[in-house]
Amino acid sequence: MPTVGMGRGLTFAMAAACGLAVANIYYNQPMLGVIGHELGDGLINLVPTATQLGYAAGLFLLVPLGDLHERRWLIMLQFGLLAVALAAAAVSPSATMLILASVIVGAAATVAQQIVPFAAHLAAPERRGETVGVVMSGLLCGILLSRALAGLVAVQFGWRAMFWLAVPVALAAAAWMGSRLPRGAPDMQLSYPALLRSMVALWREFPALRLAAITQALMFGAFSAFWSMLALHLAEPRFGFGADIAGLFGVIGAVGVLAAPVAGRMADSRGPHGAILIGALLALGSWALLGLWTSIAGLVIGVVLLDFAVHASLVSNQHIVYALRPEARARINTLFMGTMFMGGAAGSAAASQAWALAGWSGVAALGVICAIGAAGLQIFAKR
């Protein structure tokens, strides 16, 4: 059975590895000012975009390989590639070199998306939601805490130190996964081009996948709208805070990660659909709060509720999609996460326009619209 050896220790190891992997795509964001000061090139502003594009490419080109190759070996190989790319970023003499290294960092960091479906594969069916929830907690902690860590290290030791610090961490994660993960034989025998083409058929075949992916894209759009505009909002005269305080909100938002295992257990015992709807309604309430209660207290409570809502919805939607076709979990994960990240990118872009037009009130209105869309999809689908 695939569940052999999937205890709490292995679950924690996979959660930690996910967080350590995904954190690498966010380290550069709070360090842009420091990097730009040293390299003195306007192209530095393209580094976060290059990293995200690399991550998107990795989602669609590397993650499906989990259905084609032995997963343990693939995870170790991607962590090794990540270490090499981080070292290249650390020694980059120019913005161009750093941008190229950042593309590879982003692509290799999708090793986190190899681990999550593998955890679903290894878990017993009656505990799959809880297991995925715990692993996703690690991934989400990596996202939320990475900016605060990078900002601190960059201020104290310089931006190159952060990338050098991440190199042995990636190598240690590769060794850790190699020692803990069981071998995961591939479930399919396809050529690589056929593997990529098959994702189109999977998208068409499963309405539940489309519903889950689009719902989560709207939820992640609401999530990204907040985080992309938070620093600008905190810099307004009413607050007058800098990027360091914005980074600390990631630590506060990490409280919402507790939703992931709770939602997973709920999905196991009562089904995932109720948790998804609750998450969408909670996101709606959080954005209403963020728009109306314009104080630090309102921001703190609102971000905890928003993170809780998005994470609960995410784990519950994953519970649905990972059960659709076990032998195609890597490709299904690609479609689900790829759609979600496109929603996040759209949310960030729309938030920039909303900010330009109406400030924080416009961003809050955008968040409300995204949450209403997610809740409406779930209500309509149920009826």
UniProtKB/TrEMBL annotation:
Domain of life: Bacteria
UniProt-recorded name of the protein: Major facilitator superfamily (MFS) profile domain-containing protein
SUPFAM superfamilies listed in its UniProt record: MFS general substrate transporter
Pfam (any one): MFS_1
Keywords: Membrane, Transmembrane, Transmembrane helix
Chain ranges of the Major facilitator superfamily (MFS) profile domain: 1-383
Source lineage: Bacteria, Pseudomonadati, Pseudomonadota, Alphaproteobacteria, Sphingomonadales
Regions that span the bilayer: 47-66, 73-91, 97-120, 132-155, 161-179, 208-227, 239-262, 274-290, 296-315, 335-356, 362-381
A GO molecular-function annotation: transmembrane transporter activity
